[in-house]
């Protein structure tokens, strides 16, 4: 019997909530930002709701230090890979996806860390590959400014090639554990990779055996031309941000078509736009939660966030004037374009754009009852705009609990989301094939 296509859901976890003012809301305990118990409870709640994966974003620079910035909770406070390792024994089936930049960590380190996470989790690891896009990050690694956008993505493509080669440097059958024959592994099934490229020289092999999933699932979150090219060639999960159904369909079709051109199948790429749901039993209560959080936003912090994501200081322009025409930066080009397109389409001032950015940083926001939010998700899913969604709770833990309590049962009632996990690995639950080893 053919199983109907179903949505995939990621629980995108960010501190005490994705809204910039989440930590100020009376339902939130600010100390949870640094509490392992907080993340354990969230992970277990997401697993109980049968989410495919937990997803943690990251960057490698603290925000600018000032009296104003001290009013905002640091969203990338804990290192995500170590945090996911701590969540392994608290969970059994949910995937564990961490963002690690391909710009500054040597590829051997990354390959080893994710192989380890895959082994200790029983095959639940996923790597969200990003390229660091800020000068602040560059200065933490001995550079005066970030590497150019095109070069970052060129390096990332080679980086992913090296990482995959390291994961494949052990055959699946290499580990023998043969006590009587005194052979822990078969040396004929372990090989150096001897990579000598433009950006990296890595001999290998990896210290650990081949990951349980063959390769941990690779995700990518860039939507620029360079980002789409990298995602189409290498990514299995694509995290993205679109504001309209038409834009989302066009993006998803482009990624899938480019994947086919790269010799892959359309089904090899799972497209998951970010979605911030404000959900309650009534439309009025959902709107009130949104409005209460917006009332806590400091305009200066909102301007600072929008400026950081656009790559230009918007505070030097009249805040109630139009968003200026600015050239592309070497930073997050796709998000810059999204914000400019949004401002032009709706005639937003700088202040209005900044307040919009403060909610979900360019991801789509939906406000309403479980039925209304499920309707929106179903429309995108059926139109081919999304294979699922990366759910961004505005506050944590309550935003995740409300979505799991209200929206997930409605999706299940419609046959759009699982009631039980299909397998024990992240690949199995996402419906992704396990890659064959290169050395076999």
From TrEMBL:
Residues annotated to bind FMN: 58, 99, 149, 153, 223-224
Q: List, in alphabetical order, the Gene Ontology terms for molecular function in this entry.
A: monooxygenase activity; oxidoreductase activity, acting on paired donors, with incorporation or reduction of molecular oxygen
Give every Luciferase-like domain span.
Answer: 22-385
| Pfam families (UniProt xref) | Bac_luciferase
Keywords annotated in UniProt = Flavoprotein, FMN, Monooxygenase, Oxidoreductase
Q: Which InterPro entries match?
A: Diverse_substr_monoxygenases (IPR051260), Luciferase-like_dom (IPR011251), Luciferase-like_sf (IPR036661), NTA_MOA (IPR016215)
Origin superkingdom? Bacteria
Q: Which family does it belong to?
A: Belongs to the NtaA/SnaA/DszA monooxygenase family.
Q: What is this protein called?
A: Nitrilotriacetate monooxygenase
To which species is this protein native?
A: Sphingomonas sanguinis
């Amino acid at each position: 019997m053919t199983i109907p296509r179903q949505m995939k859901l990621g629980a995108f976890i960010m501190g005490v909530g994705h809204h910039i003012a989440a930590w100020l809301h009376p339902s939130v305990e600010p100390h949870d930002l640094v509490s392992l118990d907080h993340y354990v409870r969230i992970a277990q709640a997401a697993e109980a709701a049968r989410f495919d994966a937990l997803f943690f974003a990251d960057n490698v620079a603290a925000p600018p230090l000032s009296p104003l910035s001290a009013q905002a909770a640091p969203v990338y406070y804990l290192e995500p890979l170590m945090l996911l390792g701590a969540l392994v024994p608290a969970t059994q089936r949910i995937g564990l996806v961490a963002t690690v930049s391909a710009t500054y960590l040597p590829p051997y380190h990354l390959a080893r860390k994710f192989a380890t996470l895959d082994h200790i989790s029983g095959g639940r690891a996923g790597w969200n590959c990003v390229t660091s896009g800020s000068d602040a990050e560059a200065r933490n690694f001995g550079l005066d400014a970030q590497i150019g956008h095109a070069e970052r993505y060129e390096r990332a493509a080679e980086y992913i090639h090296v990482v995959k080669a390291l994961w494949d440097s052990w055959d699946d059958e290499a580990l023998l554990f043969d006590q009587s024959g005194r052979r822990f592994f078969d040396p004929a099934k372990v090989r150096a990779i001897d990579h000598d490229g433009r950006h990296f020289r890595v001999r290998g092999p990896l210290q650990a055996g081949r990951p349980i999933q063959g390769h941990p699932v690779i995700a990518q979150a860039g939507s620029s031309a360079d980002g789409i090219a990298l995602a189409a060639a290498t990514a299995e999960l694509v995290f993205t941000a679109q504001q309209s159904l038409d834009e989302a369909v066009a993006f998803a079709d482009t990624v899938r078509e480019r994947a086919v051109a790269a010799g892959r199948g359309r089904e090899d790429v799972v497209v998951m736009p970010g979605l911030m749901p404000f959900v309650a039993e009534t439309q009025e209560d959902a709107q009130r939660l949104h409005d209460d959080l917006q009332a806590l936003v400091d305009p200066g912090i909102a301007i600072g966030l929008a400026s950081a994501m656009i790559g230009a200081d918007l505070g030097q322009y009249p805040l109630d004037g139009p968003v200026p025409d600015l050239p592309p930066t070497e930073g997050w080009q796709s998000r810059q374009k999204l914000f400019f397109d949004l401002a032009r389409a709706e005639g937003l001032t700088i202040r209005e754009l900044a307040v919009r950015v403060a909610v979900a940083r360019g991801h789509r926001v939906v406000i309403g009852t479980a039925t209304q939010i499920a309707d929106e998700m179903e429309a995108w899913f059926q139109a081919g705009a999304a294979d699922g969604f990366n759910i961004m709770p505005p506050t944590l833990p309550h935003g995740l609990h409300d979505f799991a309590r209200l929206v997930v049962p409605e999706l299940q009632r419609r046959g759009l989301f699982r009631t039980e996990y299909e397998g024990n690995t992240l690949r199995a639950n996402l419906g992704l094939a396990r890659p064959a080893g290169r050395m076999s």
